[in-house]
Amino acid sequence: MTYPEFPPNCTSLLCKHLSSELFEMLKNKSTANGFTLEQAINSGLENSDSEIGVYAGDAESYDIFAELFDKIIEDYHGFSHNDRHHSNLNFNDLKVKDFDEGYVLSTRIRVGRNVKNMPLGSAISKAQRNEIETKVSTALNTLEGELEGEYHSLLGMSKEIQERLIEAHFLFKDGDRFLEHAGLNRDWPHGRGIYHNHDKTFLVWLNEEDQLRIISMQQGGEVLEVFSRLVIAMKQIETQIPFAYSERLGYISSCPTNLGTAMRASVHIKLPNLSQNMEQFKAITQKYFLQIRGVDGEHTQSKEGIFDISNYRRLGITEIEAVQEMMDGVTALIEAEKNLELMKHVESNLDNDYLTH
Ligand code: ADP
Ligand code: DAR
């Protein structure tokens, strides 16, 4: 492989950090699973509009290709090679904020997890992926109480049911081109599926981007309820399924953006006025380290002034800090939205006064 010719408009962290010198240093290296630099960067080469552009094929990738991954990790999370990740799942430490009524439509908190001592999705074999599906779905089927539910393999699921679950924000989409070119969609739909409880407030995706996406979600803005359900579930699953974990990087994920807590705490929130003031909107999201996604998740657009707002950082902060950052930022967004509403109301009253006198 020769040094790739990145297009001039490439803005990914891969383009930014893979110098020709670094490429020459890493191009002939591979992990014990045979995962190569070429495989790690293929998604970013095929998708020049990538934000990041790299995926790991196993936990070892973060060591073998550390000279590249560490630059990307520091750029995205502000986490340096000498930093160490710490966890805090004590939901009593959350300074809960009740969001004003009428803005937050729903709350979802998810973590990515991968099975210890197994390759990640980009390097796993079909047999290993099927083994994970069997072991994890068996463990999930032992869950009781509020978490009790059923596992549904994608292989046996009709397109109509899949579309309905995707539309309702419960199931992952297929055909993601970033995952495709990372080798994460190989053998699709074999080994993929979804577990959910009877109310669909607790769900687990199997073998999408990560081997598990453990999800707690519900209508409204009761963040503590959503978070505590997730923490209880995570701990119960981990008693049966050991997760890939690093003292330095926390929970190991396919994409470096999901290392550490691998947690994304999001709300669907109505901000029709702020959506007309994107400069002000983005100033607030930058201040609170928030990410703006569309109403159907990553790489989608907002609809009717509804946005998916979540914490951007996942590594080098604890789970409590990630959720707190989201809550504090969402509170600031609601305040800004209310002020814009008030200004609009005053202006329309002034206009009416002017017109009637
Ligand atoms: P991930 O959260 O796993 O990184 P996405 O951003 O693609 O993946 O979101 C996955 C699905 O979850 C999408 O259908 C998205 O609309 C839905 N979703 C995300 N946040 C919320 C939320 N707060 N309420 C309801 N659905 C949500
Ligand atoms: N779209 C890929 C991944 C960015 C982070 N999102 C994940 N991991 N789902 C990119 O490189 O832009």
From TrEMBL:
GO terms for biological process: phosphocreatine biosynthetic process. Residues 103-340 form the Phosphagen kinase C-terminal domain. It is an enzyme of class 2 (transferase). Residues 1-78 form the Phosphagen kinase N-terminal domain. Transmembrane segments: none annotated. It comes from the Bacteria. One of its GO terms (cellular component) is extracellular space. Its EC number is 2.7.3.-. GO terms for molecular function: ATP binding; creatine kinase activity. Pfam families: ATP-gua_Ptrans (PF00217), ATP-gua_PtransN (PF02807). Keywords: ATP-binding, Kinase, Nucleotide-binding, Transferase. ATP binds at residues 106-110, 169, 213, 264-268, 293-298. Belongs to the ATP:guanido phosphotransferase family. PANTHER family: ARGININE KINASE 1-RELATED, ARGININE OR CREATINE KINASE. This is ATP:guanido phosphotransferase YacI (EC). The lineage of its organism: Bacteria, Pseudomonadati, Campylobacterota, Epsilonproteobacteria, Campylobacterales.
